[in-house]
TrEMBL record:
Cellular compartment(s): Cytoplasm
The protein's role, per its UniProt record: Cell wall formation. Adds enolpyruvyl to UDP-N-acetylglucosamine.
Keyword presence, Cell cycle: yes
Alphabetized InterPro entries for the sequence: Enolpyruvate_Tfrase_dom, Enolpyruvate_Tfrase_sf, MurA_subfamily, RNA3'P_cycl/enolpyr_Trfase_a/b, UDP_GlcNAc_COvinyl_MurA
Active-site annotation: C115 (proton donor)
Listed GO CC annotations: cytoplasm
Protein name in UniProt: UDP-N-acetylglucosamine 1-carboxyvinyltransferase
Residue positions where 2-(S-cysteinyl)pyruvic acid O-phosphothioketal is found in the record: C115
Enolpyruvate transferase domain residues: 7-404
Protein source organism: Desulfonatronospira thiodismutans ASO3-1
Keyword Transferase annotated: yes
Residues where phosphoenolpyruvate binds: K22, N23
PANTHER family xref list: UDP-N-ACETYLGLUCOSAMINE 1-CARBOXYVINYLTRANSFERASE
Keyword terms: Cell cycle, Cell division, Cell shape, Cell wall biogenesis/degradation, Cytoplasm, Peptidoglycan synthesis, Pyruvate, Transferase
Amino acid sequence: MYKLVIEGGSRLEGEIRISGSKNASLPILMASIMADSDVILENVPGLKDIHTSLKLLTLLGCKSGYSEGSARIQAGELVPEAPYDLVRTMRASVLCLGPLLARLGRAKVALPGGCAIGSRPVDQHLRGLEQMGAGFELDSGYIVGKCKRLSGAHIIFDLPTVGGTENLLMAAALAKGETVLENAAREPEITDLAEFLNACGARISGHGTSVIRVQGVDSLEGCTYRVMSDRIEAGTYMVAAAITHGEVLLTNCPDKELDAVVAKLQEMGVVISPEPEGFRVSSNGDLQGVDVVTLPYPGFPTDMQAQIMALMCVAAGTGTIKETIFENRFLHALELNRMGARIKLSGQSAVVRGGADLVGAPVMASDLRASASLVLAGLRARGKTEVQRIYHLDRGYEVMEKKLEAVGAKISRQKEN
């Protein structure tokens, strides 16, 4: 295993290119098994989860490959089983359930794993697919589903669910008749998935709103499609510039998808200016604590909660963070406190007393975004910070240490003892 070793105190200055979106790429990769011909995806990040997905596609009967930001998936004789050894390492693997049922009428998918940030059940996925005609049983840790051709249905989600919306959206693309998804999640990655499916010949409208309509088609063809850029990676590097009193130009950057993050950072005093190439982000260190509530899109994303907490630790005044999406997503607060932060937890809320003089320390990542927050704190802290268990980080950030080193950070990847 590896760790990141950071000597804090360097001001970041320069240009960072934002990678393609992991959270958009993963469902699009799963959707590619629905196409009758080859799919070429551009702007795909070279992440562990991407390569895990490509391994899964190979096990499902597709030929797949990756090179320099481009993934190619060749249609093959599909196999309906997603094994536990892969699914347990990546929760997004469950997104092959809808496509397999739509294409083959059967699927056997292990119950998913992923980060330890709380319960994320798949009951809404299954309930919606049952409304479309599928039947399920649980067999030794596997979801086993069967159906004839799926039929359109009017499905109302109890709560907006990103994965559930994606799974049912894909299934509905090849179902017979019209499917209406009501109270659907509105995340930009869902819009990107719908645009990809439409490029393959699907008939989807309303994506980006809470009501999505899908007119099922008999088949989908492959296409070449460019995946959106990663809004969470962009937000993370915005915080990196601010926490180091730096100035960084972010290129290949999402725009309106970052509105909630940009607004909150500007409220703290971060200067963010749109430019033809992307966003220029700077701070002179005159920052103020704010109140943050994580919400489904278009609200402030839960995936940026840990990062803005790190920034609030060094801002003036006191701010609060209320986490409404996941019930176990404050584990990074304890590690930040070990570095000198002053964070008090109470249930799903955190009170952050700013003005902390962060000091480097050995810290341990509990999940993907927690890893990022500890790296950000290490960039600011006096002395050396060692962020351990960075396999979490590698699931969501493409060569983070190289991108940060290129703009002035003193950071290196080293083997753990």
